[in-house]
Amino acid sequence: MELWTEHGPRVMAYALRHLDFDSAQDVVSETFLVAWRKLGSVPDDPLPWLLVVARNTISNLRRSGHRQARVAAELERFRQIAEPAVAADVLATERAAVLNQLAVLTPKEREALLLIAWDGLTPEQAARVAGCSLPAFHVRLFRARRRLRASGEADAAPHVDAAQRPLPSAGGTA
Description:
Belongs to the sigma-70 factor family. ECF subfamily. By secondary structure, the protein is mainly alpha-helical.
């Protein structure tokens, strides 16, 4: 406790010179976690040692960030060269209409409909994914379809009928 009280603000100031506030808090927490784990090897003058630990933690955080950025860039490259999705030709307004229709459903009804329509699962497979019995899944799917018909919006976009064909991709915003 004394180590934290005496040196915590100094380690935080060091971290803030290198990172944003949230990341600096993470670095300080990690620094004192290392100090607690190695309490027997913390020197009598702990501040320089704590700052070295903080510096190493910052370096690890930056390396991790660079790796994440490289992975994101690689995924974007794959996205650009991959085949378009099945529903890539669906207009954005149609996608918005589908998303509005899905918004009237409860989360369980929406999950049931999407497992069948977007993921292409059989009701048996979808029930396993949803963690419910097959009869319970059929009830969820029935209620989802009934709610869409009752909302009057199902007529505006007949492709929502999950039993017939899949819904268009919402571009990752669903």
